[in-house]
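Incident log entry.

Two folding requests arrived from the same account within the same minute. Monitoring flagged them as a possible duplicate submission, but the sequences differ. Recording both here for audit purposes.

Request one:
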Amino acid sequence: MQRVEQPIMTTGLERIAAKAREERKLKFTSLAHHVTEELIWESVCHIPMNSAPGCDEQTVTEAKESFKQWAPEMLRAIHQQGYRPPPVLRVFIPKPGKKEKRPLGIPCVADRALQRSVASVLAAIYEQDFLPCSFGGRPGLSAHHALATLTEVIAGKPVSYVYEADLKNFFGSLDHGWLLRFLGDRVGDPRITSLIRRWLKAGILEDGELTANEKGTPQGGSISVLLSNLYLHHVLDLWFEKVVKPRLKGQAYLIRYIDDFVICFQYREDAERVQAVLGKRLDKFALALEPSKTKLIEFGRFAQRDARAKGRRPETLYFLGFTHFCTRNRKGNFKVGRKTEKSRLRRSLANLTTLMRNIRHWSLKDQREKLNQVLRGHYAYYGLAGNVRSMLKLHRAVERYWHKMLSTRSWAASCTWKMFNQLKERFPLQRPKIYLSYGRLQTYAVL
């Protein structure tokens, strides 16, 4: 199972969580005192040492060394509502399988620690409000939980249609006015509200030029994930649960991971009704669907039966990097199969081949350690039951290309397959692992 980030929970935050759970409409007017030096220090320690510095070029090591100088001043500014976050450094990273790049915001290390501390305080409240259909960016939950829930719903409920959707430029489209209005339902501490407002309005530094931020929240900060969940909790989750579902003829289920979501329906009529009003609902809150990633398909037990009667194959569903398809187990019963999405598999292989070209002159031991580090990360996410072939395909491709790279280390010699097999015995590549989850029991089998 994928490792998930656990919340920083102290006795004070536990009391907040209990109060929020007991009184669903309570507005908390005193929260800033829970952001302490100890909490900020824990947040600093949580930041990986190799994290990129922000616009002030301060590294994590330097932030730790000077903590006693900047932390008290930061807390004093917060309580006086005078804290002004430094600009967010914007960089661009490649989008999976696309030529265009995704903007990523990198806050300064100290500001990053403060964001995570405030997010921990707010999470104590909002974790009591968020619905079970939401999985992304929440403590104790991961993409694997969303995938397991999707499988359980399709295999165990009367589902025949699935609406898969993705929001266009979600993080860059959040309306600040609506977000602060949603925040105000539970948070009445002006010091926290002021912090959130200033984080939303913090300038963006790109190529040495500072620009104002009028909408959206930069991807990269801890607070952005919590605020995005809060936004869609009001815009989508609550609306679907309280407004949409009571008006449908059949059963329907929403499963959301940040801005990726699917809705499972029993009847096509219900799916088409929701499809017709969803765009209007999102438009009201400055959001829009990405047409290329949004469609309604027939999927499930009955869809498989109908497709077979018509002499065609059932449609496939794409969600969270996996291709989901209709199949049957050894007993002949319906089940949801999954495999790594082709574009994700190509991306992983491309990254690994680039890595092998760059490190081919390293020692064999160092090469093996670096490749295994990347392979373990791939297996940790894609190593789900039923995805054996996709992972073995990647493993074999890496072995073949590693052999090719070792053969080009010198013009005077090549590495034969016999030599390579002997080298693999001394420096073996990580074999795929399939993770099996039965409730809370998690085991894995080495292939």
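Request two (distinct sequence, not a duplicate):
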Amino acid sequence: MESINSFENFKSNPELLEKLYSNSSVKNFKQGDVILNESSIIRSIPIVIEGSIKVLRTDDDGREILLYYIKEGESCIMSFLGGMHQDVSKVKAEVEEDAEVLFLPVDKLTLFIKEFPQWLDYIFKLYHKRFEELLEVINEVTFKKVDERLLSLLHKKVELTNSKTLIVSHEQLANELATARVVVSRLLKKLEEDEILKLGRNKIVIL
């Protein structure tokens, strides 16, 4: 699929990029900050300028599962849909890496769709990408064992951060996989014994 990162779709249209910034506010967040909670009213659409955000879903028992990451130049299609239909958020958005985020008010969405075909193309590409990622989550939860899902998650984090040294706790990984911390700790120890990774305090090095 064609990349949508770094506002590539907008660079050929300076008017769109200028209008996007002039109608939005920019905020900075630290790792772990929650920028959107489930059942919150969606007043603006986040677009990541720098850093990354993870989008999670929580069940009735408080267990979370990772749905997808929002990287530089990307947004949350759940927010788009909820904002356009004046619905509350169905997901939680938490900062994975320190992030700079642009917030476009939902009342500007229709205006942008009418004025800029590239904006609509951007939304469709996001929708396509998120749909594929959600299918992957369903496939992993349904057909893969927890150890396979754990390794897949670690590889995603390596790709996201462009580093083989991950600053992450066992509890955080367990939350994102919707499993118990003791299970993740046991599997990580096995992966370390197999020399696939090396464990440290809240740190994992992929070998």
